[in-house]
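Homework help thread (please don't just give me the answer)

Our assignment gives two proteins as sequence + structure token strings and asks us to describe the second one. The first is just a warm-up. Here they are:
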Amino acid sequence: MFAVIKMELKELIIDEYNRNGLFIVISILSLILGYFEFNFYFINLSWIAILLCGLPIIKDAILGLIVDHDIKADVLVSMGIISSILIGEVFAAGVISVIMAIGGFLEEYTVNKTEKGIEEIYDLNPLNARIILDYSKTTEKEVLTDTEVVKVKDIIKVLPGEQIPVDGRIIEGHSSVDESALTGESIAKDKKVNSPVYSGTINTYGSFYMEATKEGKDSSIQKLINLIEEAKPENAHVVRQADKWATWIVVIAFVLAISTWFITGEVIRAVTILVVFCPCGLVLATPTAIVGASGNLTKFGILVRNGETIEKLSKVKDIAFDKTGTLTYGKPKVVNIIPEDNISQEEFIQLVASVEKNSEHPLAKAIINKFEEDFNGDYLKTKDFKMVLSEGVEARIDKDNEDMEIFVGKKEFISNHVSVSENSQISKFEENGSTIIYASSENRFLGSIVLLDVLREDSKIVISQLNGENINSLMLTGDNEKTANYIASQLDLNDFKANCMPEDKINTITSYQKSNKMIAMVGDGINDGPALKKADVGIAMGGVGSDITIEASDITFVSDDIRYIPHLFDVSKKTMEKINVNIFLSLAINFTAMFLAMFGLIGPVAGALIHNIGSVIVVINSSLLLNYKITDKDFSLINNNGISKEFSKSK
């Protein structure tokens, strides 16, 4: 039993956060005893508080001066503690030390709680890989090693339930992979030979062999971790400015303290000024707000590169959207089935889907998905399947004991076999940018299927919400003028540019910047990389497996959910409001306490208490950002996304 207690005590002391808490408790007890003049061999027990809580403050102040050549707030506190000791106020020095230590402890607690959700993603980083040596031989050898040593083209075996160690592609076997932690997709994805797999995702049931396409340090999950590590609040311009002000305040406090001592002759007033005028609240004003904002956004699957990004976003009044994969889903979907010659929809799509089942083309998959989801019928047996490159496919089908050849593809391909009848509906769909697939038998036209990259359900709402916040939305698309105009009309967008090549998007963004307008760019991170990089704030939707998404953007939407863009803007503005309020409160409390100290209305103990009340108010005010606009309804929405499930533990 004593061994267990000894072990737990050892762990408590080793952990700095817990150790500080223990020291504070011991120091408070020593102050209580010191207050009632319980001495140890004529030594005031308040010295215990000075040694445990005051000494670390003095040490940090000295290191800051010598190593960093920086006048930190700890300098004033240290001078206050030392001055109190010199004038015989040992109890006051102990109280100042403990109050300052409690303030730092509470600040650390709040920040730790805020960052806990962000750090959950570190658990997704795989540690081990099962590398296969002599894969092509009958006597293969298996070696379990660190993920860091995996090289490109290494062959890796992944067992059921294991995390995939690095990015790669399957070369043998098949399985279903849970990618929810990366993409927010709640349904596991089927994987087969040549399917890409990403590090940090989980193999659910089948074993497979994969070839590494990236080293561990370049894998998808590691890029996300690197992105989080770059999200340091001290990078923001407003943080650097606050630090400069804090340095000047330290100098001003020192001058005022000396002046007050010289004029009044009361050193106790000078000591109190040093204590109350410490700019701790000012130093905390910005980083705590930025950390709170980052914690909030992470719950929505939004990763922000650094504090400066939040600062820039709060000033953005224009936002450019790529169309494909951003305002739309980026995948073709069957939106209409138009059979001819008295054929029912079900019979028509059964014929087409049976032929397309032999194809890997994205349009073929969209037709197959439509057939399986809405018609739930059986496929007809096919034979002699052929693919005509860039034209279409054909196959023979046995239907009702009748052998018939079916052709599916472009209008020109079908026209080689039968006459394609004109249809006013088709012309309307073509104007809207739809893709039309035609089908026929050897001697008759069977009909057509309309496919479209449909708008995301929330796109129109997002544009409307941004307009309500006086943020102008612009659509950039490579589509022709008619298609772009149709999409813009569906979104109530007045501003769009069609026929855009990547350089056209960059030129558009540059024109805004030359007009002294800050602009954000939202893209899918694949062909929008240059535009994302050029914009004042680049926002990438999903695509965690894409290097461009991580490297070119300032903000990454891991959950690939466009509806949270207005929330992102709201949080950025609210963060700057919190920072301004924090700075005002901090300075107001400091100056008020300083005047009270100058006129001898408060002493060092009361000064230390007021000082830390100000710091705690700043931290609490910033921590309110964590749950800003997160209602029960919002949580029910975001908890459907995998990454939110990971972070909701820290709520």
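The one we have to describe:
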Amino acid sequence: MREELGDAVLDALFSQSPLGLHVYDRELRLVRVNTAAELMREFPVDRMLGHSLPEILRSFDVTDAAAVERAARGVLETGHPEFDLDLRIRHRRDPAIEAAVSVSVFRLQQADGTVLGLAAALTDVTARLRAEAEVRLLNEAAVRIGTTLDVFRTAAEFCDVVSPALADTVTVDVYDAVLRGRAPAADAFDRDPTVRRAGFRSAAGPDVQGVPVVGEMEVFTPGTAYRTALDTLAPKLIRRLRRDARWLDPVRRRDARLLSAGAHSMILVPIRARGVVLGLACFYRWRNPTPFDQRDLGLAQQLTAHAAQCLDNARLYSRERSAARILSGGFARARATVDAAVELARTHLPAGTGGGWFDAIPLSGSRVALVAGDATSGTSSPAAMTEVRGAIEALAALDLPPDEILHRLHDLASRPSTLGDAAATDAREGSPATCLCLVYDPVSRVCTAASAGHPAPALVHPDGHVEQLDVAVGPPLGQGLAHYPLTERALPGGTTLLIYNSALVGEPTSSGPPLLSRLNDLFAAPQPSLQAACDRCAHALAPEQPARDAYLLLARTRVFDDSRTRVWTLPNAPESAARARRRTVAQLAEWGLDQEVIDDTALVVSELVTNSVRYAKGPIRLRLILDTTLVCEITDDSSASPHLRRALNTDENGRGLFITAQLTQRWGVRPERRGKTLWAERSLNRQVPVGVEAGEPSP
């Protein structure tokens, strides 16, 4: 009975058990196998009966075959079994099949100790090890992808994680709009097909570059697998890539590289996050002979989904950073160009809605224009703010006064879609755009301002007293009848202007203290810097949760003293040109300027005064300003604006402005209440220190 039972057990093990069982003789030749084992279909080892263990190991590409053979011979000699040897086996058929097995080896011997051979029990652990590897890869992706808010860096991190763990080569192509913070169109027919390579990684090595290279643009050809995946937004598994596939064209660089590399399997996954199509991730196998399968496709989709969230975070950051740059108006550049007139500080408290902006624009005569605006709906796009700022900068370059700038902006905003769709939509829906325009002259200390629905700025005097600048507020841009009265006020040196939007101060309440009282308290004590005062004031004034982006701009005025400016009034007579020339030469020599600068400026002054004598009737004023550049201004009572023209060789006049344009960096005409001022700027070869009236003011 016992013998019958033993025979039945052996028969079941070798004909019914799913466990792989191999029997080897003392020479390690295969003599019997379990034909019912799960691995027999993919790895028909029964066909190798009589072959030696080394031959079988080589036949199935077993990793580290020499170590396996040494372990088997050790068991045969010592009798000590080996447990849980992890092996990877591969069938060389096309397509290749790979499996992971756990092997335990025992010595077979009779009761008297005679050694008969070895028995090897094989357990297929492919599914378990693959699941563990997938979990490790997903965990690694969660840690390593998205460490920055840069699209290219995020794409590179994704490629580094995926290759070679899942694919021999992986690429990331994103729509060009993504790099500018914009969302590509949802409809494939409306979407710009231009993509840019953002990430690439190959198992061939870090020095290998893809086609196209990272940073290069390309358009996926219609009808290709790439374009189809993006248009349909459906991931695509190409288990076996045929070289004669109709969509492959060896003439195209990408396809030629694909064919030359010997890629035999690929996966294409559209990169999508928050309903936005960002680009395409491509996975290729050319070194690993095992083709991708459905499980690989699922893993690729999970990895791409995580990377898509990180890439979209980078896109949104780029968009918000662009909005912040628009809001600040290139603040670093503004500080450098207007520092002689005002000291600037700003604080921006974003609420994620946008809508507010401010800028500092250098003007002729060392003046500065401080402009600020707000879309009270908080929904204006950066593009609309850019158009408004661009229009203001262009109008300010014409040296128009603030009220005239606002009148022209009002006319532009009244035209449908002239200042951007978002701004036009705000105006139509009753959520107007406001604007404050203020010009400060550090020579005369005069501040002129006009407002289109924007809060009037506050003034902090050098002694700490706070008051509101009396600016008559006109209608918002594009609404009502344009009427923007101009306010003029002479400010002492060291006065601080506070320019803000209504989101910062909120709506006035009967229970809280008035704004001026709060400002008096905030500026009662001196601060270590203007920026520190700006930050403290903004955070104290702002509500706990602003409804939209809030900002505060502080501008502390400077004053040019007599050592840096000279003014002469000349009679309207022919000899005034020579007199102006002599006084200019003497003054520039006193300032210690280079002889070349003196000679060029004297010639320019002589030509401009001669023009005023010819076309004006009243007295002529000559003003020289020593700033980071040398400014000369000629003011007369003629409203006629001169124009640059090229005089013929036979002409006796008409060369004054041509000479001015050749000898100066820029020139222009500024309208005055009566007459005009023609100005010109000449660069210097040395830096002029910024000066303020005696006495260091408090913030």
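TA reply:
I won't write it for you, but here's a hint about the kind of observation we're looking for: The two ends are 106 Å apart (CA to CA).
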